């Protein structure tokens, strides 16, 4: 692409670094921003730099948060005996959107993937185990994607957790949805949380 302006070229280069954004789309977005008020563009860039500079990860569940401990972990009406284990923040949002779950979460920050060199020590696994030692947790629910990485992670976590006196269950995963949690519709995901099964039983099906 031949640009008439270095400023334009730089902005397009930054936008095209975003996932799924090619140069043409980047140019369209940049030209759109140029048509906006300066105040509007300041709000846009301010929101991005605020996000990057001020965002935190909850000390307890590791979800993205505006505070040291997130609003879910501090909510008085949450059932503190339940921990739903998910891969990332998008999955917390997906489960929250179902309105079928009132417990706490634990965000692993990824899934075990030997192919990609991601092992348990790269994830928030030890902190999950710590939570079981300290709290009155009675059930851990795995809500991980039905992929090989998801299965490997559940298999490993089950081994780490089963010596604790808790129920270990998994959301119904199967033909209803293969793959990523975030693409499951709310109704299906809500139902699969409500009808979750003990992990050991899920293996024999
Ligand atoms: Zn939290």
From TrEMBL:
Question: Can you supply a Gene Ontology BP term from the record?
Answer: DNA recombination
One Pfam family cited in the UniProt record for this chain: RecR_C
Query: What PROSITE patterns does the database record attribute to this sequence?
Result: RECR (PS01300), TOPRIM (PS50880)
Asked whether the UniProt record includes Ribonucleoprotein among its keywords, one would answer no
This protein's source sits in the domain of life called: Bacteria
All copies of domain Toprim, residue ranges: 81-176
Zinc fingers (C4-type), renumbered ranges: 58-73
State the Gene Ontology terms under molecular function. DNA binding; zinc ion binding
The UniProt entry, under InterPro entries, shows:
DNA_Rcmb_RecR, Rcmb_RecR, Rcmb_RecR_Znf, TOPRIM_dom, TOPRIM_RecR
Keywords on this record?
DNA damage, DNA recombination, DNA repair, Metal-binding, Zinc, Zinc-finger
Membership in a protein family: Belongs to the RecR family.
What role does this protein play? May play a role in DNA repair. It seems to be involved in an RecBC-independent recombinational process of DNA repair. It may act with RecF and RecO.
Q: What is this protein called?
A: Recombination protein RecR
Q: Which species is the source of this protein?
A: Mucilaginibacter mallensis
């Amino acid at each position: 692409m031949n640009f008439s302006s270095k400023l334009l070229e730089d902005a397009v280069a930054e936008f095209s670094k975003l996932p799924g954004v090619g140069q043409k789309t980047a140019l369209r977005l940049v030209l759109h921003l140029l048509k906006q008020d300066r105040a509007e563009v300041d709000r846009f860039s301010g929101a991005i730099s605020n996000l990057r500079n001020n965002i935190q990860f909850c000390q307890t569940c590791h979800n993205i948060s505006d505070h040291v401990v997130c609003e879910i972990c501090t909510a008085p009406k949450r059932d503190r005996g339940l921990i739903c284990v998910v891969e990332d923040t998008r999955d917390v949002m997906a489960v929250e959107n179902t309105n079928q779950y009132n417990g706490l979460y634990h965000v692993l920050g990824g899934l075990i993937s030997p192919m990609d060199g991601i092992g348990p020590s790269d994830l928030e696994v030890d902190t999950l185990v710590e939570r079981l030692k300290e709290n009155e947790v009675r059930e851990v629910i795995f809500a991980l994607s039905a992929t090989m990485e998801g299965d490997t992670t559940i298999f490993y976590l089950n081994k780490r957790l089963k010596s604790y006196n808790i129920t270990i269950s998994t959301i119904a995963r199967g033909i209803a949805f293969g793959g990523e949690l975030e693409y499951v519709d709310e109704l299906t995901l809500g139902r699969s949380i409500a009808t979750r099964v003990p992990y050991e039983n899920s293996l024999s099906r």
